[in-house]
Amino acid sequence: MRKATYLSAALAAGLAFTTMTAGAAETVKVGFVMPFSGWFQPIDASTVNGAMLAVKEINAAGGVLGQQIEVVKFDNKSEPPLGADGALEVIEKGARAILFPSDFDFGAPGAFVAQQNNVISLSGASDPKFGVKGIGPYAYSISNASQAQGALLAEWAFNKQGWKTSYVLLDNTISFTKSLCGSFVTRWKELAGEQGLLGEDTFLNNDPSISAQTSRISGLATKPDFVVLCSYAPGGPSAIRQLRAAGIDQPVLTGESMDGDYWAGTVPGLSNFYVVNYGSVYGDDPDAKIVDLLKRYETEYGQRSDASYSLRGYSLIQAWARAAEKAGSFDADKVAAVLDTFKDEDLAIGPTTFTPDLHIATTRPMTIVQAKDGKFSAVGKFAAETVHLD
Fold first, then answer.
1. Can you say whether the dihedral through the CA atoms of 305, 57, 318, 125 is positive or negative?
2. Which of 35, 162, 236, 256 could form a disulfide with 78 if both were Cys (CB 3.0 to 4.6 A apart)?
3. Are strands 139-141 and 120-123 parallel, antiparallel or unpaired?
4. Concatenated DSSP letters for 191-235?
5. Which domains does the chain have, with CATH numbers?
């Protein structure tokens, strides 16, 4: 009887070990090599939260190919070179896809490592280089290209607002702002002609004063119908405050890097300000599905998403999971082959198209949000018609 008892205990222990092992095998790992600390952390915080919400909802619905998604995190501490170390670490732990920061310069070091190890890279970077030509065929961005955003601003201003003259103020710090303003200028000259651009100026994000630039705008014989500001916080809000203090009250247009109202308190009564983004976080986006998702985000985290970047994070996980399901595999080649067939794929962020040569959106509609008396609201959704990526 004692032998039988020992045998039963051994069998039970073996069964328990087998069950635990099987349970462990029933997860698929996704790496989050993201800035969980440092100066870049607030920028991608809602991206991470959106991605985690997607993981939770996908797991609740049964996971991917019957397996629960397990997130493996690595903090790059807002230091781009650490992305490569992070990629190696999460790959060693079994990651089949990796989420990287929403900027090419920050995400590329890790994405190159993922590419070399046949792992899918996911990012909200707005630079088309986060894709086939810049990194390789396993790298995908869910964003609208910065060039598409610049073209959209030009077309909206000219075709929808009837404005004929502009002035460009470029924060010459990062690649996104450079390509945003560059693409705006190219498209604006096509629409309004050379005479439609009254001037271009530059500054750096940490410049304490742009008095020279505001003086040049104020000194123009003909004042521009609007100003295009390509910047990000804190330099962007500082530039707007100085423009207004100098009596330059013309509309200011900008790209997604100044999305959200978390900085608006630094410009009291902010008005005549327009930003292009992925969806209005103020509950009035024209897309009801975006409104619903942002409500779920608020319920999950107890606060409103501070920017529309949460839609990017959610959609990156959603796109990868959907492609893996369709491929019937987590293999990078098979998942990439499915992603490359996406044609207006209905993702949370909107209709998304990838091709074997281009892993970023160019024609997907974006929301334009305006500020009036310090309050933000959606103007509508618009898509660029002509985009020059080169």
1. positive
2. 35
3. parallel
4. HH-GGGEEEEEEE-TT-S--HHHHHHHHT-SS--SEEEEE--TTH
5. 22-143+288-359 (3.40.50.2300), 147-277+367-382 (3.40.50.2300)
- Contact status, residue 229 vs residue 270, Cβ threshold 8 Å: no
Q: What is the pLDDT along the chain (390 residues), one digit of tens a residue?
A: 333 333 333 334 343 333 333 344 489 999 999 999 998 999 899 999 999 999 999 999 999 999 999 999 999 999 999 999 999 999 999 999 999 999 999 999 999 999 999 999 999 999 999 999 999 999 999 999 999 999 999 999 999 999 999 999 999 998 899 999 999 999 999 999 999 999 999 999 999 999 999 999 999 999 999 999 999 999 999 999 999 999 999 999 999 999 999 899 999 999 999 999 999 999 999 999 999 999 999 999 999 999 999 999 999 999 999 999 999 999 999 999 999 999 999 999 999 999 999 999 999 999 999 999 999 999 999 999 999 997
Strand partners, 68: 27
Cβ(145)–Cβ(126) under 8 Å? Answer: yes
For residue 78 the two structure tokens come to 């807002």
Angstrom distance (rounded) from CA 276 to CA 89: 36
Report residue 84 as tokens: 């490569």
Enumerate the β-bridge partners of residue 253: 228, 274
- In angstroms, the CA 114 to CA 91 distance is 8
Look up residue 203 and give its two tokens: 């500054």
Q: In whole angstroms, how far apart are CA 46 and each of 159, 199, 209, 269?
A: 33, 35, 30, 25
- Phi/psi of residue 55, each to 5°? -60, -45
Query: Which amino acid makes up residue 28?
Result: V
